[in-house]
Amino acid sequence: MKLAILDRDGTINQDSADFVKSPDEWVPLPGALEAIARLNHAGWHVVVATNQSGLGRGLFDVTTLNAIHAKMHKALAVVGGRVDAVFYCPHAEEEGCHCRKPRPALFEQIGERYGMELKATLVAGDRLRDLQAGVACGCEPHFVLTGKGAQFRATVACGEPLPATFPPGTVVHTDLGAFADFVIAREQQRASAPPVPPPSR
User: Fold this and answer.
1) Using an 8 Å Cβ cutoff, are 117 and 85 in contact?
2) Are 19 and 64 in contact (CB under 8 A)?
3) How many Å is the Cα radius of gyration of the chain?
4) Percent of the chain, pLDDT > 90?
5) Is 51 helix (H, G, I), strand (E, B) or coil?
6) Would residue 84 show up in a list of annotated catalytic residues for this protein?
7) HSE, side-chain direction, 13 A CA sphere, residue 84
8) Please, which of 57, 63, 141, 178 could form a disulfide with 170 given CB 3.0 to 4.6 Å?
């Protein structure tokens, strides 16, 4: 199964230093929902893995979080896209849980849900911790220059590498739309490549 695991805030929707606390505050980034739809149409299943420490801080409750995600699902349906599931960590950072990214428990839960190893799975996010959590489970890391990732736009534009703290092989994209285009084009290229003959003896 082709699976892509996406961060939420700063990757799919606008991030906020004050947290996204209501459906009204959830605003999709330009082209992000359409990018998910393109992935779906190319045969990819998409799930979300997100830290939601606002729950642990008492800034909103699970009912409100569900309403936020209901808005996201509805907006995706309008453009022909779908997120299969949302996995979230409800804990504040000081609680020291195992599911808050960069720890890998959310990704382990996804692997268990789908009954698969995550070695062929893509992870995309706007923070180092998104990639670290995925790479710990064998995912292929993709970094988007939206949300918190925008601070690296000048670095990338100058042709400089990301800091050494980023996982080796991290692929950088302008936004989620560029990520989807890259993934789909690479898959098409691989499908059209001639088979490699076996080595002669």
Assistant:
1) no
2) no
3) 17
4) 91
5) strand
6) no
7) 16
8) 141
Q: Which of 129, 12, 146 is nearest to 69 (CA)?
A: 12
pTM given for the model: 0.94
pLDDT at 126: 98
Say how many residues make up the chain: 201
CA-closest candidate to residue 51, choices 24, 81, 86, 75:
86
Would you state the pLDDT for residue 8?
Answer: 98
DSSP class of 118: S
- How many other CB atoms are there within 10 angstroms of residue 79's CB atom? 17
* Whole-number Å distance between alpha carbons of 162 and 168: 10
Residue 119 structure tokens = 């070695």
Q: With bands split at pLDDT 50, 70 and 90, how would you rate the model's confidence at 195?
A: confident
Which residue of the set 7, 15, 126, 175 is catalytic?
Answer: 7
9 catalytic? Reply is: yes
3-state secondary structure of 169: coil
In contact, 108 and 137? CB cutoff 8 Å:
yes
Other C-beta atoms within 10 Å of 61: how many? 12
Per annotation, catalytic residue among 9, 126, 130, 175: 9
Cα separation, 22 vs 72, whole angstroms: 12
